């Protein structure tokens, strides 16, 4: 995610993106200076010894990890105290997740080993969770304190079908791995916008893509899932085989089984597509940019090869409030020109950064890389597109962020992400999905406010400020009749319970499907993103 991976999102922000690498690179001198500072800070942080106490490990989990170690290769099981264990922890984007200490990490090579690990953990009454890319900002989303964390680092196959209609990917891939593998074949899939974000979490929560305005969210471009059930049974799930589960997996998260392969619809990809990355001083160009965003949200989206990703942020190093627009178009453009859908952005004629041209999609995902190691907080909301409301939301966010601008290593951002009628139409394919938006016929605006910071002493103030943003924006949009209940799961805070926003009928249907495929509720009582009745079970 622009900040989707500030978020993100994918935004992941997903989704907090480091401005040193992607958000503020305009004068080359600034680009180099910021990158150097970022790398220096990363090195400094990495050199600090960990002072985290060893976790409490129950006898059940100690036994389960010992069984894994005696059953599989020693290199597949990393326990507390070994160097590989620290490497496993460092994969997480958020410091909150990184600091969690499982009893062991298990690295399966295939679906059968995944099935064996899940059955073992359940039989021994040991908490477990699976992790793809580790981009969840909060603890318990892809970590299991004192339990078993199953990481897919050894499952990274990317395979193209003989007829080039499908691309099969395993969940250990990050999106850059997938795109780079497909580049020589001039093919692509609908996936994440940031290189390092994991594939599985994004696909199970929705998946906003640069190509979504044409093809829909990533989850609506999945032809088949290979699923390991908690019983150990391995099944295929698609529109004709287990169609109830196919509907549920499109937005329902990891509540039904463990996905060990996604078969994605494949699309022909030109070697280059057009990208414009524009950064401006938002105190000067707020109105210009918001006008452009709302114009695209109401009419510009008709060019279904166009996409926008919009973020406002505060750059602490320079004391600047900036705005970055990542504009993309599936067709290359003549040198020095831009697609007409983006005319509004070019009314802001003084930029801090203006990088445009025809590039490979993999290059853009690398531009939007974000470093691990910060404390992360993300909230989301959905509203009707309205120019005055958008301006007022930006002002609320700034009011709450301003008292924190001197906090250590802080990076706050606010994203506006229009979701178009083309996206909702794609949700009707193959029996629809579970998020409850498929009957929508006009654009919605997904909001995402995210923040990264370094000092634990600032936790309470940051949490309180962003809770106030959420409350104030909710009350304002409701008062104006512009609030929409939907919460995008990949950007949601643990308090937001996104699945409840899919509609009561859909939620009850999801609960019924969960009981069918996981009758004893194993996945509901273990960690792992959002559960059907709220956030994951808390630990520690």
From TrEMBL:
<dbReference type="InterPro" id="IPR036318">
    <property type="entry name" value="FAD-bd_PCMH-like_sf"/>
</dbReference>
<comment type="similarity">
    <text>Belongs to the oxygen-dependent FAD-linked oxidoreductase family.</text>
</comment>
<keyword id="KW-0285">Flavoprotein</keyword>
<dbReference type="InterPro" id="IPR016169">
    <property type="entry name" value="FAD-bd_PCMH_sub2"/>
</dbReference>
<protein>
    <recommendedName>
        <fullName>FAD-binding PCMH-type domain-containing protein</fullName>
    </recommendedName>
</protein>
<dbReference type="InterPro" id="IPR006094">
    <property type="entry name" value="Oxid_FAD_bind_N"/>
</dbReference>
<keyword id="KW-0274">FAD</keyword>
<dbReference type="InterPro" id="IPR016166">
    <property type="entry name" value="FAD-bd_PCMH"/>
</dbReference>
<dbReference type="Pfam" id="PF01565">
    <property type="entry name" value="FAD_binding_4"/>
</dbReference>
<feature type="domain" description="FAD-binding PCMH-type">
    <location>
        <begin position="98"/>
        <end position="269"/>
    </location>
</feature>
<dbReference type="GO" id="GO:0071949">
    <property type="term" value="F:FAD binding"/>
</dbReference>
<dbReference type="InterPro" id="IPR050416">
    <property type="entry name" value="FAD-linked_Oxidoreductase"/>
</dbReference>
<dbReference type="GO" id="GO:0016491">
    <property type="term" value="F:oxidoreductase activity"/>
</dbReference>
<keyword id="KW-0560">Oxidoreductase</keyword>
């Amino acid at each position: 995610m622009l900040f989707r991976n500030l978020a993100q999102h994918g935004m992941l922000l997903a989704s907090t993106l480091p401005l040193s690498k992607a958000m503020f690179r305009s004068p080359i001198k600034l680009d180099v200076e910021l990158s150097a500072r970022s790398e220096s800070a990363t090195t400094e942080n990495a050199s600090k010894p960990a002072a985290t106490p060893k976790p409490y490990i129950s006898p059940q989990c100690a036994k389960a990890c010992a069984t894994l170690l005696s059953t599989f290769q020693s290199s597949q099981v990393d326990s507390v105290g070994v160097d590989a264990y620290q490497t496993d922890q460092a994969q997480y984007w958020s410091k909150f997740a990184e600091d969690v200490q499982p009893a062991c990490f298990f690295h399966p090579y295939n679906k059968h080993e995944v099935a064996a690990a899940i059955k073992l953990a359940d039989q021994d009454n040991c908490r477990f969770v699976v992790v793809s890319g580790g981009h969840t900002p909060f603890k318990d989303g892809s970590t299991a304190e004192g339990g078993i964390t199953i990481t897919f680092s050894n499952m990274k196959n990317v395979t193209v079908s003989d007829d080039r209609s499908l691309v099969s990917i395993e969940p250990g891939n990050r999106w850059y791995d997938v795109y780079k593998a497909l580049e020589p074949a001039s093919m692509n899939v609908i996936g994440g916008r940031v290189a390092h974000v994991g594939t599985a979490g994004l696909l199970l929560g929705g998946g906003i893509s640069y190509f979504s305005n044409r093809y829909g969210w990533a989850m609506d471009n999945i032809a088949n899932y290979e699923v390991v059930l908690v019983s150990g049974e391995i099944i295929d799930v698609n529109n004709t085989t287990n169609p109830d589960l196919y509907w549920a997996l499109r937005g329902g998260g990891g509540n039904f089984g463990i996905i060990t392969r996604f078969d994605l619809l494949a699309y022909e990809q030109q070697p280059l597509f057009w990208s414009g990355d524009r950064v401006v001083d938002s105190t000067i160009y707020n109105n210009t940019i918001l006008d452009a965003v709302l114009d695209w949200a109401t009419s510009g989206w008709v060019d279904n090869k166009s996409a926008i990703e919009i973020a406002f942020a505060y750059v602490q190093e320079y004391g600047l409030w900036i705005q970055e627009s990542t504009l993309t178009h599936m067709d290359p453009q003549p040198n020095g020109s831009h697609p007409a859908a983006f005319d509004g952005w070019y009314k802001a004629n003084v930029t801090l950064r203006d990088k445009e041209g025809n590039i490979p999609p993999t290059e853009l995902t690398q531009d939007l890389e974000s470093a691990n190691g910060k404390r992360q907080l993300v909230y989301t909301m959905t509203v009707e597109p309205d120019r005055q409301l958008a301006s007022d939301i930006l002002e609320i966010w700034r009011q709450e962020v301003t008292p924190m601008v001197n906090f250590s290593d802080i990076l706050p951002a606010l994203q506006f992400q229009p979701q178009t009628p083309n996206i909702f139409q794609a949700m009707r394919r193959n029996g629809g999905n579970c998020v409850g938006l498929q009957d929508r016929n006009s654009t919605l605006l997904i909001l995402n406010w995210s923040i990264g910071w370094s000092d634990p002493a600032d936790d309470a103030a940051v949490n309180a400020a962003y809770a106030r943003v959420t409350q104030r924006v909710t009350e304002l949009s409701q008062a104006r009749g512009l609030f929409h209940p939907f919460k995008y799961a990949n950007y949601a805070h643990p308090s937001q319970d996104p699945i409840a926003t899919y509609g009561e009928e859909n939620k009850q249907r999801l609960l019924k499907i969960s009981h069918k495929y996981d009758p004893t509720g194993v996945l509901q009582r273990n960690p792992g993103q959002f559960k059907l009745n709220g956030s994951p079970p808390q630990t520690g």
